[in-house]
Target: L-lactate dehydrogenase (cytochrome)
Amino acid sequence: MSEGKLTGAKVAEHNSKDSCWVIVHGKAYDVTEFLPEHPGGQKIILKYAGKDATEEFEPIHPPDTLDKFLDQSKHLGPVDMATVEQEEKEFDPEEADRQERISRMPSLEACYNLMDFEAVARQVMKKTAWAYYSSGADDEITMRENHAAFHKIWFRPRILVDVEHIDMSTTMLGTKCSIPFYVTATALGKLGHPEGEVVLTKASHQHNVVQMIPTLASCSFDEILDAKQGDQVQWLQLYVNKDREITRKIVEHAEKRGCKGLFITVDAPQLGRREKDMRSKFSDPGSNVQSGGDNIDRSQGAARAISSFIDPALSWKDIPWFKSITNMPIVLKGVQCVEDVLRAVEAGCDGVVLSNHGGRQLETARSGIEVLAEVMPALRERGWEKRIEVFVDGGVRRATDIIKALCLGATGIGIGRPFLYAMSAYGLDGVDRAMQLLKDEMEMNMRLIGATSVAELNPSLIDTRGLLGGHSGVVPSDTLGLRAYDPLEAPRFNEKPKL
Amino acid sequence: MSEGKLTGAKVAEHNSKDSCWVIVHGKAYDVTEFLPEHPGGQKIILKYAGKDATEEFEPIHPPDTLDKFLDQSKHLGPVDMATVEQEEKEFDPEEADRQERISRMPSLEACYNLMDFEAVARQVMKKTAWAYYSSGADDEITMRENHAAFHKIWFRPRILVDVEHIDMSTTMLGTKCSIPFYVTATALGKLGHPEGEVVLTKASHQHNVVQMIPTLASCSFDEILDAKQGDQVQWLQLYVNKDREITRKIVEHAEKRGCKGLFITVDAPQLGRREKDMRSKFSDPGSNVQSGGDNIDRSQGAARAISSFIDPALSWKDIPWFKSITNMPIVLKGVQCVEDVLRAVEAGCDGVVLSNHGGRQLETARSGIEVLAEVMPALRERGWEKRIEVFVDGGVRRATDIIKALCLGATGIGIGRPFLYAMSAYGLDGVDRAMQLLKDEMEMNMRLIGATSVAELNPSLIDTRGLLGGHSGVVPSDTLGLRAYDPLEAPRFNEKPKL
Amino acid sequence: MSEGKLTGAKVAEHNSKDSCWVIVHGKAYDVTEFLPEHPGGQKIILKYAGKDATEEFEPIHPPDTLDKFLDQSKHLGPVDMATVEQEEKEFDPEEADRQERISRMPSLEACYNLMDFEAVARQVMKKTAWAYYSSGADDEITMRENHAAFHKIWFRPRILVDVEHIDMSTTMLGTKCSIPFYVTATALGKLGHPEGEVVLTKASHQHNVVQMIPTLASCSFDEILDAKQGDQVQWLQLYVNKDREITRKIVEHAEKRGCKGLFITVDAPQLGRREKDMRSKFSDPGSNVQSGGDNIDRSQGAARAISSFIDPALSWKDIPWFKSITNMPIVLKGVQCVEDVLRAVEAGCDGVVLSNHGGRQLETARSGIEVLAEVMPALRERGWEKRIEVFVDGGVRRATDIIKALCLGATGIGIGRPFLYAMSAYGLDGVDRAMQLLKDEMEMNMRLIGATSVAELNPSLIDTRGLLGGHSGVVPSDTLGLRAYDPLEAPRFNEKPKL
Amino acid sequence: MSEGKLTGAKVAEHNSKDSCWVIVHGKAYDVTEFLPEHPGGQKIILKYAGKDATEEFEPIHPPDTLDKFLDQSKHLGPVDMATVEQEEKEFDPEEADRQERISRMPSLEACYNLMDFEAVARQVMKKTAWAYYSSGADDEITMRENHAAFHKIWFRPRILVDVEHIDMSTTMLGTKCSIPFYVTATALGKLGHPEGEVVLTKASHQHNVVQMIPTLASCSFDEILDAKQGDQVQWLQLYVNKDREITRKIVEHAEKRGCKGLFITVDAPQLGRREKDMRSKFSDPGSNVQSGGDNIDRSQGAARAISSFIDPALSWKDIPWFKSITNMPIVLKGVQCVEDVLRAVEAGCDGVVLSNHGGRQLETARSGIEVLAEVMPALRERGWEKRIEVFVDGGVRRATDIIKALCLGATGIGIGRPFLYAMSAYGLDGVDRAMQLLKDEMEMNMRLIGATSVAELNPSLIDTRGLLGGHSGVVPSDTLGLRAYDPLEAPRFNEKPKL
Model:
């Protein structure tokens, strides 16, 4: 037995609700009193009572979690891991299949566009992680509409423009970026990759784009800041806590550490129901353990488990307070109609993100790009288009999507899931390639449209009539008629070779 | 042989048209003279002549049927069931498959939305029962359009509204309800569950919503009333009998027993052809044996068999008579264009239900929600929107559907089939969960839209442009071209693992 | 050897182009000189040179063909059929499969609508016959649009109308009919049934509807006339021959035999290419052998083979001549835009049929029902709606389709293929049931719409906005995105029963 | 060893980057110094270092390539091929499958329309060749829209027009053609057929249509010119070289050799990314080796490899220069909005081709036919419709497509891929039949529309409302609802024959 270390046997004695010890990263902790406060519920902790919980704990808690939320008196010190009984894992056929698929993964070079990363990630990610990232609200209609909406906008390119030199750089909230997209905030990065959000930090640096840091990150906020290089710029995405003091500390800390924008999420007074996520039976808590209580329904999936601290009472009245506590530009993330954009201007906000939260909140909410087409003419009509920066996210997969948003008048375009998928499947190299593919597409497409700089992109280059009719449907098919129809056939190949 | 009881052998002697006895619930009845009057035809009774018919009789006749329709002299008294020969049932592979599926049913907790109950019910219900509930008119285009129509309406949510406290209660016909939906009338509840409509009565009580009692219930009207608890409110749905005295008795009895609304069905002078139902070869009569005669075509499915008493001559001229016989509010159920809503106001009706009878009557009739969008502006234009309560039903599956109807101006939203499916698959617990899911969705979605009460829901929160173009179709596909097209592929996984 | 009869051996000697005899119905004919004149080509005759050709000849030639087109000197007299060598038929696996399917045909009672007959016919008809009936022009887009167009028109029914008594009779070209549809002309009835068009004659009589007799019938014109019963009314459909004297004789003969309407086909100066038909390798001639010549491409399918006599030079200048040779009302069949309807009025025509020839002629021609919506307002604007009767055909499968046309203002609705399919699958009983189903649907749907007679059907009962946008398409799908999407799933059934 | 010839062994010694010889058509060449200049990259050459490269070289280099680009001193003279070691080819299962399919190819007569050739070609072409021809930009939405757009335009045909004589000839850039389509320029003809573009030259002569000669042909320009017969007319498609002197020489040579039109491609400052092509791993260089350098990414597919010489700086300023160096009519190929057509008129161009490069360049660029509908009214409004000839290409598969373009006002219609597919599958006979099929369709459809000459085709004959709404989409489906729906079924056939 190693000196001064606890034995596995000793820890194993504390395997009940009455006395519950767990091992994390080789150290033991007494979590008996913490049990009822765990946002993810007691059940998942008790499963590991008296045992090593590292593997389960790791992906969804920032490393500073135990220091922050567990009194030092409960830190029991190192365990002689050699004495801890190894549990034999039950054979999981789904996991075995996944490992087999991973062994046959396509090479990164075979990914030619952002959808390709998603197609690969779907096969190689853990089921619960995939469900958390890929799910949307209700029937996921809005989630899919987000990308589909771009297909309602078509180009009116100009020819015979000298497009030898293309400059696709732009400026967002005072920061010069190499290309007008940014990495938008998405939760629980370690579900997809052991290093979590810092992978995105590194890729953002490589490509000189801005990263928006999520409140619900797997990495700690400071870890993500620490990963910043050179004059790299980051923004903070903020879920506002019911306890405004916690929020104040977060904001002030972010500004001190150099964040250049405060994006307040306004489309999530309550996090959405995502049935795919719920069905995947994921019930582990997220990392951002801001509040306690065990009265949340644990069967509601990851999204609900990690968001109980969010304040549904947040309102326009809070905006002046935010302006009083920070000098960072204030941007409302999740604005969904022109009325609220105009109000944001009047409230003195510096920007809005037209977004429906990746289709994860309100079903049949309109896509950001559709709202953008509604918003910009109203701003121009009032001469207000310079008073506020209008960002948009949701469904962006191609440089053509980015260009359409720019033609309408967007300042910057947020991209979330595609980089998560690239990261989950291929790590930093994946995100790097995803960004490079977008840049390649962007350069080419600007050439093909006949614009040499972002400033030259304007509404006359697009045809938006497809948005005018709203969301029309198609008459349900007459099954009997369709099935009785005998479709035409191409020439049939012979059954045997001709001689 | 038990004292004073008939023997099975004795009953079995009366096994022909000339002398036909049947056993129901351990008692024998002489139905010889009743045979030609049976609305479901003689054939189905003769199949059980001299035998125990309980299993066939039970699900589709209210318990008071024999007392009501068979003279006491034909009640032959108890049978010594030990002496009744047990028939061996023929092996039915479809039924065996169904039982096997039932043994593997998903747990109730796995149902996350109203469609889930339907998906389960489809697998575990008897084929004929499923066909009766799930079928619609002709090609079932209207039936499907009813839900699809909601997808043409999209949200324009407001942000930064304090939505901590959500009040989703409302008032319909003077009754305060916890949420603006009610259980609409649907026929033959015992096809789905042995207890029939009283299951819905109990669930409605648990959730403080109104139940509308159907004329064509499997339970007797009084059974459903008796199941009422506390100050629970029920309404009566009425098919008007050719014999108005029968109708008068029904209405007066309902009012006396406390019903708070009279919903006169006006979209069914003749019950629709539902081919799925007809094809399922269901030919048993319904419970509401109001009229006799055997001249109805038995191959027309359940709907036609049970509805021969309905009066196709019902007209606007009858409305004053209804107003003269009852003080209950009078609501026309099945109104389908603005002209008739205006006429209903003028006729002094208290409400209308914009409905196409669940897509079971007239094919390519418009959905209730589409008619609502036509009706409300016309009412508002005349300042009549307070003179009449406008209900709507058909295709409601999500709280977002309910909210869209409320935004347009509906007072209440009827839901039928989803609760039948929940009941058929999981009984009372199923209906309870279905209602709870709707409440959970409703609370969340009102938050996400930025409305704290039903009164705050208004047309500016929705985009209804998708309804403007009517019902456009898509050009039939060019099969040859589509098949010759070689679709893009995602990266292929390798055939063998990399080494 | 029977006295006075030819032997099979004798006939078999004449088995070449130089001397070609064939046996039909037990008689021999010398067709050597006729060979080059055969509209269906020499090849198919030479296949039977010296042999019994009855089975091949029968379905596609009217019985008077040989008398009409072969000089009496070539009629060689009866053959002793006992001496004719029986050819063993090659085993045809497709035909064997078809016979097996026929043995398992659903009973007629299982057909609940007109599509059902088509579904059965597709399985039990000979491939070439099915291809001839079911094929359309080019990609068959117009053929399918014909039915789909009805789904763009939705109902605005009226409630509380006394609909106990429904009168669906109407008058077309002076003839009272029981219901406002007629049997429109379709070619080659014997492909579907050995008795050919007279089956339709009998069914039309049973249901008191008008039959339009086709120029290209399998039965002779007089056979069809002879099958008429009582005061049954028939019309003549006319393809105009390059030789106007032939046309004059046909018209005069039809009028003399009591035809009550002359429908001149104007949408077929050349019969369409129908690739399904061509691909089925059908190359036999039709019955109406009006002209000779062998320069037609035999690989063009049945339609082209039988239509070489049609005059592509037919023009408005011919109308006065038609008026001069007959007192029958003159109706132009195949009018496709409002301009030509107005011109028809001015030319003194009694009617038009808005039709695209069942989608068999010009691809992406509009449906008759769409043209009707264009035509009627223009007629009413000029007060001309009584000056001409407007018929419509194409894609009618449901009584709702008929009612929509009547609401728009049509006088009568032609139905073709559905009756052919009913006849092909079930003979006269099939057509009888098809017509009865339409009547049942019609009665019910008029009740549900709130109209008691054809006269009450009017434009306010329908919503035609779906026609306003023309023929819009849908953006081609993004395959990669769709395939990467992971669709929602219903609750999964357990793999094993719960214990 | 044959006298004066090199031996295989000798050549095989030079099998490295330092000394690299290859054999082509029995002659050896020293390409050591050329290696870095090869547009297709060094790798593909080095694969054949010291070996016979004929089979690889042949399909994608014009025969004069070596003479043009390799100094005579590097031409090492004939090789005694008997001494060259034969490499055994590795068994390629995909190629074996293809050969098997070729052995069962449908006969040419089974192709009834242009799609049929595509369906056959897809099965019998080499994968890389198929990928190069069939691929489009990004998600290939525009590529498919090109054909689909024609389905948004429907006909309004006129009846009773004497259409016995149809004249479908027309005049383009002063040349009388038999029918208003031309063979548009497409690259790398030898991928599909060993003879390459001259096959199209021959077919164009047979049918009296114009051929546009591509810059990126597999055959040399002069070979294609040499194949011209009689007064056959050809045009030149031009990619403009960064080195204008090269361009000048090409233009002057073309004019001298009799080309009658100069089509300057303006929609391709950079050749598009075609992922299907890239995925097929095709990396061989095209024939038109105008510039060197090895800095192009070889994984970008054929399109990128062969186009590095194209000048992205080409602009309106270059037009006067072109007018100064040639008397050929100047046509801009790839114009995509009305503004640029008007500018082309003002710049003195003789024509424009409304085209998106077959959907191979900018994704969600509008189809040529849609742009045509935008352009012609603007030209007519200004009275400019005679000042410029408007051509259109993209997605043309049917004569109806051609006729729609003519009705809108097009002078001529370009067809590319369909002829490539016909050539690839069936050689000259295939192209011949494809053209004949179009002529047959054209003649028939003009009859059916009621137009006897191209001049009679006008906008009143078509309904273009389907284009007005832009590119609308459909709401994404609700998977759960759709899957829970139980579709209607046709009558079921019995399991066993009836007795």
About this structure: Confidence is low (pLDDT under 50) at residues 282-299 of chain C.
